[in-house]
Write a structure and sequence with these properties.
four-stranded antiparallel beta sheet, mainly beta
Length: about 150
């Protein structure tokens, strides 16, 4: 099987299994000639989430329209990569931000660990943190909302 056919086959398997990253390596003649490829793609079944549900939606007992009930609005700061989110600079330390905190453009709101590198996630909007959508140590996907800023 050619390397191209292997990559195409692995891409199909990635789609079927929901895998977003994969590394392939093929060696010939004891490593003298080597082909290496890193596949990374956005999941085709990404869910668009313009509004985020509040933790307790069952409190709505009135006959309000379902569109506005139990939804929060605001700007969603999204993860630029796949990794593990951390809300504080180290275990036991004060979190970067909290609900109700005023933040400015450039403020670090989280870290995402990817390939043993800690990448700071900075706010790209001024505002107040309305909701934190991930927990400390939670795995996050590319383009997953992390916090809501209003």
């Amino acid at each position: 099987m050619s390397f191209r056919a292997t990559v195409e086959s692995m891409s199909k398997i990635m789609d079927e299994m929901g895998i977003t990253e994969l590394e392939l390596e093929r060696q010939f003649l004891f490593g003298v000639y080597r082909k290496h490829i890193h596949l990374s793609k956005q999941q085709a079944t990404a869910v668009a989430m313009p509004n985020f549900p509040v933790a307790s939606e069952s409190k709505n007992t009135t006959s309000e329209p379902a569109d506005d009930a139990g939804q929060t609005s605001g700007y969603a700061l999204k993860s630029p990569m796949v990794g593990v989110a951390y809300l504080a600079p180290e275990p036991g330390a004060k979190p970067f931000t909290s609900v109700g905190a005023q933040i400015k453009v450039g403020d670090t709101v989280a870290l995402i660990e990817a390939m043993k590198t800690f990448n700071p996630i900075k706010s790209d909007k001024d505002g107040v943190v309305k909701e934190i959508l991930v927990s400390d140590g939670q795995a996050v996907e590319f383009d997953q909302p992390i916090i809501v800023i209003e």
